[in-house]
Amino acid sequence: MDPTAEPGRLIEHTVESNVKDPDNACRRTSGDRRRVLVVDDDPVVRRIVLELLNSRYNVITASTGVQLPELLKKHQPDLVILDVMLPWLNGFELCRILKTNSSGQDIPVLFLTGCKEKEDLLTGKEVGAAAYLTKPFYAKDLYREVDRLLAA
Amino acid sequence: MTPLRRGLPEDLLQKIRLDSLFRLTISLTSFVLAVYLWIFSFVSDLRPLALLLAAYTVPYLAAWWLASRIEAARRLLDYALSAWDILGIACAVHLTGGPNSPFFFLYGVPFLVQAFHFDMGQIRWNGLLSALSYLVLIGIHRAETSRELAAVYAGHMLFLGIMIMTAVVTVRLLRRKEGALRKNVLAMESNITLLNELNAVTLDLPRTQLQEQIAARLNQILRPFGTFARLWVHDESWRALKGIGEHPAMRPGSASYLPVRACPAFALRQPFSFSQTHGDPCPSEQFNYTAHLCLPVRSEKETFGVLLLGTYAARPWEPDDIRFFETLAHSVALTLQRKALFERLQEKITELNFSFEVGVAALATFVGSTQGIDETTVHILDNVLAILKVDRASLMLWNVQTQRLQTQWVRGTDFRIHSPLALGLGEGMAGWALQFGEPYWAEYAMSDPHYASSGQMIKSLLCVPVYTMDRNPLGVINAVTVSQPRAFSEREINFLKSFGRQAALAIENAQLHHKNRSHIEQLKELDKMKSQFLSLVSHDLRGPLTGVRGYCEILKQQARGPLTSPQADIIRQLERQVDLQERMVDDLLDFARMEKGRLSIHPAPCDVETLFKEEVEKSQAEARERDVALTLSLPAASLAPVVLDEGRIRQVLWNLIHNALKFTPENGRVAVRAAPEGDSLAIEVSDTGIGLSSDTQDRIFDKFFQITPGGSKGAQGLGLGLAICKEIVLAHRGKIRATSPGLGLGTTIRFTLPLRSALAASAPLDSREAA
């Protein structure tokens, strides 16, 4: 979906990162920290995840999934954390796009969402998510899942 | 039919045999007489007589023998025998003293015999031979003829002539009588043939075809009688007679229709006869018959028409003939009667079918009336089109506000072209029908005084008013023909009347349904909004919780500086509040699902021991805080895995433990026990808390039920926790119960889960179904 397809509406999106030079992030050495991309429309959640993971990983956050392909290309993350209820494209759709994209196929996806329904969980599995965490989440759960996924 | 015979005896063989037998008898009798006379010596010598008798008899015996073998020679033999007879008689007369012999009178015998046989040829032959032989005898005995004798001879000749004449006349008369008899037999035979044929006629034939067949057969049967027949039957309106059947004697231009009043036979139901010599000729035919006969064709019940018979014969019919014709007419009438009955039966069947069709249509309409008013009305009108076979059908609805009838739906040809016609009560045919509550129709609608023009050319119009169940005017159904004018039968009007009643019901039903449906749709909409609202609420409620918990977690990491002990304590408190809040949001959502009957469980085999340990462990912090001892006791033998929805059972346990902690004062105890019990697992959560009064024991699982604790703390939560627990346990096909010895004496909540669960590991269950 092209955001420009709907004229008159501005797509607000932010990309934050703890990486000093995000443009050169791809030029990393083997000793570099692994990168996590977080897509969530809630700045508080973005902030919290950033704070929690900051010490261990390079974290890039985005408010919408619309720039996901560019972000993937630019930052080449090792893990993507997605919210479900996102503007424009919801998390499931994003995940599906990611999994059909050659560059994103192998990146594990972690859903961090307020959707607790069994159906949502199943949908998450179906679209190829590696883990599913519900909000409000505990830091230990997040650490456990992220470590697990990045260790693999 | 056998032709009338022309002077020939039917069986010559029989005649010859009869004759031979007769002669033989005579000869033998004569011989016996002679023997008798000879015994008493009246006759001296038998020989000449025996010779004579033999000479007379032998040819007859030969003829007998021959006749049975050679069929062609029979007539010749017959004539030869006659000649032999005459010769014998002549010889006898000659030998006994010439023409004056008393044996002369034997000449009369052959005539009697031949007259007996009706044999005109033989009579003539015998007459000729007798006269000739007698003249020869006179010639032979010429010498002894005196004047007196001559007179006697003349007298004899006269006698002979009279004999011949008598025989001829007798035969003629008898033959005529016989002819009449045969004709009667023929007539009877013909009538029987006709009756049989008429009986065999299939009544399935169209009426005209049947009548034509009858007329054709009549002409065939009547041909031997020199008579032509034409059947005149009345038409539907009884105003005209229609001529059926053609025959060779008909002239071109013969009328096919005749007004009923022109036929007195039909009008008066009596036979009428006409002849050229007297009476008026029948206007129906231009055949120049010498005689006509008109017979009414009528059964005991009804009159169908007239059978007209005509003949060119110079001699008019005899009474016998007329009786025969009358019988024929009656036979025809019976057949037509049968046909009429058959038709009536068929009509009844059609009518039955028709009402059946109407019933089905009405039913379908009524059933269809749940579709909405437009579909229902279209269905009704289409049925009217199909059943009445009209060009257009429309429904005008009575508008109570404007007090006008307005066309709302039109189906059929040109149904789009209609000017909006608004009629008041009594205006136009439709208004008239509605005002008087009776169907109104006109074959030529546009010339009807009540017709209100809509600017369209129509032919026939039938308006049937329809009323609601409570007799309020609903509208008028119109059936219109555009191409051909047509009459509407009683049956059709009745149909539309009853159909109108059904249609009214269907329309009312549709209106009602429409109302209901919009109501249901509103409810559905509301329900949808409720669901959306709930999910939004839960999302929005969880959002801040995520934030609070997240920041707590960050603080706990002490990345921004170390925390003091009271600070850490505050953060723990905060986190517990978040937990509680999260549970409440979950409960709210579960409750919403429960209300919709959608609380589903996803059972899977589960290690219950770990589950219990973890859940109890989770609540230990809270218990410590409340200064309540929380203990778990499990049986010595390890518990087998149980098929259950792990998340849900955890929810139940948490709820029960949390509740127990909540209502247990400081220094109290909360004990969780689990043990297998028969084929189920029993779990107990007992506390030393405030207890339950006997009347609240059953109510604590009700939705929104709250116990206000005796302490200073107000009720926490929504009062949904236990209701949801009950629902979950029921969905697992378990049981849950609360018992308490009394207020202040603690409470035990006990629930069971079936061990060999009937729940399939994969099949999700609906809580309502399970309950």
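qc> Confidence is low (pLDDT under 50) at residues 1-9, 710-715, 760-771 of chain B.
qc> done
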